[in-house]
Design a protein that fits this description.
Blueprint lengths: L5 E4 L7 H8 L8 H9 L5 H8 L14 H16 L2 E5 L4 H14 L9 E4 L12 H9 L2 E7 L6 H9 L3 E5 L13 E3 L15 H15 L12 H10 L7 H17 L9 H9 L7 H19 L4 H7 L3 H33 L10 E5 L7 H12 L3 E5 L3 H12 L5 E4 L13 E5 L1 H7 L13 E7 L6 H6 L7 E5 L2 E7 L3 H16 L7 E4 L1 E3 L6 H7 L14 E17 L6 E11 L7 E6 L11 E10 L4 E11 L13 E3 L14 E4 L6 H17 L8 E4 L9 H18 L2 E2 L1 H8 L3 H13 L2 E6 L2 E6 L6 H27 L2 H11 L2
Parallel strand pairs: 1-14, 2-3, 2-4, 4-5, 5-6, 7-8, 15-16, 18-20, 21-23, 22-23
Antiparallel strand pairs: 8-11, 9-10, 11-13, 12-13, 16-17, 16-19, 17-18, 19-20, 24-26, 25-26
Helix pairs in contact: 1-2, 4-8, 5-8, 5-9, 5-13, 8-9, 9-10, 9-12, 11-14, 12-14, 13-14, 14-15, 22-25, 24-25
Length: 836
């Protein structure tokens, strides 16, 4: 059953007239009211803020030397390398932020150090290596004669590797924006905006922006060396900033605005005259023009990321972004496009498989979705996890056990006789975070003790699952995963994304623990997929004027999302769908539905798209929808992009009242006073199937009557359960069993259930546990006879059986707690869905 979405509308505070008029100066063709409302909502509330937000020329960017002593140390070390002609290695990362950061340093430092002789770069292989520094590659750089490593988008917590490099005579300058180390590492310099307070204009810089600040400082310190202007790097900065989904405020917004302008100017040039022919060719392949942030977030960014997801090695992307060889760039762009097509295909396949597995989960009692499969390619799991999280409203972790034994074998051979399972505090997997400090968690002997073994574990027992996690609903996913570090091999990330790996045998324990942890932290809060609209508009409002007005907010991103528009009481016409094939026309990648939207505000329809959906999924008749207003460069038209839609008849699903369900839960009377036609449920259910039986009875009775006055009502009248601790319930069950054995009395299952307060299914698990303790349970007519013959022969099995019973009790208690507090709107939504 699909999850019912919750729709919300941002509370709108009417901005003062002076503010509306100030915004109108930038939107002469329209009233400026909608833009003013959005800007006011998002904290832009004075003229100076407004001017700096809209016009990047009015913004004063921070000096690179705001980084203080660390930037001075970095520049001094680079000047030393410049004077003594030392060899320098750039150490990057394999996502779009890391690739563009490497490219900025390659082009920027390349103005001072000869590329390929004095200056080289290295990017880890996503499918074979983790984020961050590693000793094997540091050895290779030492053999090449490198005396300085400059990291970008990585390195802050690689303390052990930095010490190792220093022992080989290699200094390290870290430029990064990820997790800070507990203490300053022994580096030549560390430039990381996380050292600033959160309100600082540089705090949100991504890896590419930090790299740019280093180059900017070097340009200022050696002003007569560079042949090309610093501003030539800004298009790359914009690509990395927007692709990395950092908050676009302060210098981030300024750099993105400047970079998009440079990107657009370069794309307008003939291919042979472009500064970045590779970027231009990529834009052509994805039918974009480079003038919108979405050209990066939906075009360039996914393509750059796709290379490492599919091929592992993304090193050639630096050449693609920086080379001026048009022919070579065209070749590399087509390889990138092929990788992206393959990524889409794999993503689509995994999405279908995940959707099938989701049908086997009861989402009403699942807080964190954890799914695994041996065939899933690790490179696309983060993308699919993000989609599942958005659709279900729950943090989602997808794990692949593909090639697990081979991966473990490599780990063992690299570590020698001691197996070191490690936790990465700064990043692992595919979360887009830089590698961090790696600390051993268990020795081989400790692992043997944990598993009850005296000999080292076989490789099959140590098979590793690797995956990605994505979060929603303000759940701090990084902390959630970090708290289970004792079960993990590696992990890292940030509140909304994480990567991790763990022993395959630990997956059930990890799943149970992380679900229990989130349930406890949420309390009575219910996780539901949520779509939030910013403004309510009509079809008559849609078009060029509104588009240009909303464009004032660009570039949009974290903290300043693309405006979402609520259109009510509308309908669709002329809908049709078609298969969207890959760029060579060979394979279907997506389904796309096109339509015209209408409402009573205008006689004219307005065009729109719904990606990944068939036309049959559009509601028939009047409906409400949430959409984004866009401009289609390829078709040269304004259109909406549908985000969510529901029939107007279902708009009341989130209201607090229902025409046939009465909420009498937790009321202090023994029996509710209701009409004769009311069905009453007093026992708290433990799953949706229990409740559906009553809902269907009610609906069936209602349909058989004529007129609303005779409609069957359903009263949910259970009380919040007062649970005993599971251990106490077990002791009570054992005590009753001993008493019955001693007195030779019989008991019915109903009597046991009433005395202990558990379900019949959980009681069966308890009876199995009793048998391992030496109890014998036999049927005698409709009763049970229990006898006891104590035995120690199966003590380990008894412990496991008791643990299963305790887990069953905890799960049952959680479910009852859920149904005691689940909003009536959710129950109504279930009833409405079942009635269709």
């Amino acid at each position: 059953m699909p999850e019912q979405q919750q729709w919300t509308i941002t509370a709108t505070e009417q901005p003062p007239e002076w503010f509306i008029q100030a915004v109108k100066q930038y939107t002469p063709a329209s009233s400026g009211l909608y833009a003013a409302q959005l800007l006011w909502q998002r904290g832009i509330k004075d003229r100076q803020q407004l001017t700096a937000f809209i016009n990047h020329k009015a913004y004063q960017p921070a000096s690179p030397f705001e980084f203080g002593q660390e930037m001075h140390l970095a520049i001094a070390r680079l000047q030393q390398a410049y004077n003594t002609k030392e060899k320098i290695a750039i150490w990057g990362d394999f996502d779009a932020d890391g690739i563009t950061a490497t490219s900025v340093l390659w082009d920027g430092l390349g103005q001072f150090f000869a590329q390929n002789t004095q200056l080289v770069y290295y990017i880890p292989n996503r499918l074979k290596e983790s984020h961050g520094l590693n000793n094997q590659r540091i050895d290779n750089l030492a053999k090449q004669g490198c005396k300085l490593i400059v990291t970008c988008d990585t390195g802050s917590t690689n303390v052990e590797e930095i010490i190792y490099a220093k022992q080989l005579g290699i200094d390290v300058i870290v430029t990064d924006h990820h997790t800070l180390p507990a203490e300053r590492p022994p580096v030549a310099a560390i430039i990381n905006p996380r050292y600033f307070p959160k309100e600082h204009e540089l705090f949100n810089l991504s890896g590419v922006a930090v790299a740019y600040k280093l180059v900017e400082a070097l340009y200022q310190s050696l002003p007569n060396v560079a042949k090309y202007p610093l501003e030539d790097l800004l298009d790359l900065v914009a690509v990395g900033l927007i692709a990395d989904l950092v908050q676009l405020s302060g210098d981030c917004r300024y750099l993105a605005q400047m970079g998009i302008q440079r990107l657009q100017e370069d794309f307008k040039q003939p291919a042979a005259a472009r500064r970045r022919p590779g970027v231009g060719r990529l834009l052509e392949l994805c039918q974009k023009s480079g003038d919108r942030p979405t050209d990066i977030s939906f075009g360039l960014g996914p393509r750059i990321n796709a290379v490492s997801r599919i091929q592992g090695d993304a090193s050639f992307c630096v050449e693609l972004l920086t080379s001026q060889d048009v022919k070579r760039c065209n070749e590399l762009a087509e390889v990138t496009e092929l990788a992206n097509a393959r990524r889409k295909s794999l993503q689509k396949d995994v999405q279908a498989q995940v959707a099938q597995k989701l049908t086997q989960l009861d989402l009403s009692t699942t807080s964190v979705i954890v799914l695994e499969d041996v065939q899933w390619p690790a490179g696309v799991l983060g993308l699919v996890a993000g989609q599942v999280a958005q659709e279900t409203g729950r943090p989602t972790i997808l794990l692949s056990t593909e090639g697990a034994e081979e991966h473990t074998s490599t780990t063992l051979s690299n570590q020698g006789s001691i197996l070191r399972l490690r936790s990465v505090t700064g990043g692992a997997g595919e979360a887009g975070e830089a590698g961090g400090e790696i600390t051993p968690l268990f020795s081989n002997s400790e692992l043997s003790t944990q598993h009850g073994l005296n000999a080292p574990l076989p490789l099959t027992a140590l098979a590793l699952a690797r995956g990605s996690a994505r979060s929603v609903n303000s759940v701090d996913l990084y902390q959630l995963v970090k708290d289970q570090a004792h079960l993990l091999h590696r992990f890292g990330g940030h509140p909304f994304a994480a990567g991790l790996s763990l022993l395959v045998e630990n997956i059930p324990l990890f799943t149970a623990a992380i679900n229990q942890q989130l349930r406890q932290s949420l309390g009575s809060t219910t996780l539901t997929p949520t779509v939030q609209a910013d403004l309510t508009v009509t079809v008559a409002d849609l078009g060029k004027e509104l588009f240009l007005e909303l464009k004032l907010l660009e570039p949009c991103g974290m903290g300043n999302p693309v405006p979402k528009l609520l259109i009510q009481n509308c309908w669709f016409e002329n809908s049709w769908h078609r298969n969207q094939q890959d760029w060579q026309g060979k394979k279907v990648q997506y389904i796309k539905t096109e339509f015209d939207i209408r409402d009573d505000s205008s006689r004219s329809a307005f065009p729109g798209l719904w990606w990944g959906h068939y036309k049959d999924e559009l509601p028939i008749g009047r409906c409400d929808c949430i959409a984004e207003l866009d401009y289609n460069t390829f078709k040269k038209r304004y259109e909406i992009r549908l985000i969510a839609v529901r029939s107007s008849l279902n708009s009341a699903l989130n209201t607090q009242h229902s025409p046939f369900i009465l909420d009498l839960r937790n009321q202090e009377h023994s029996a509710p006073t209701t009409q004769d036609s009311t069905l009453i449920i007093e026992d708290c259910p433990t799953n949706w199937d229990d409740l559906r039986i009553w809902l269907r009875r009610c609906l069936a009775t209602s349909r058989s009557t004529s007129g609303l006055e005779n409609q069957q009502q359903l009263a949910i009248a259970w009380s919040k359960p007062n649970h005993q601790p599971p251990n106490q319930i077990w002791l009570t069950l054992v005590g009753i069993a001993k008493y019955l054995s001693r007195t030779n009395q019989l008991v019915t299952r109903g009597q046991l259930l009433e005395k202990i307060g558990i379900s019949d299914q959980t009681l069966l698990v308890g009876i199995k546990a009793l048998k391992y303790l030496g109890f014998t349970v036999k049927r005698q007519d409709r009763s049970l006879q229990i006898t006891w013959h104590p035995s120690d022969s199966a003590e380990n099995l008894a412990d496991e059986a008791v643990a299963r019973f305790l887990a069953a009790v905890r799960e049952e208690q959680f479910q009852q707690q859920y149904f005691a507090e689940v909003p009536l709107s959710t129950i109504v939504a279930i009833a409405s869905y079942d009635s269709k």
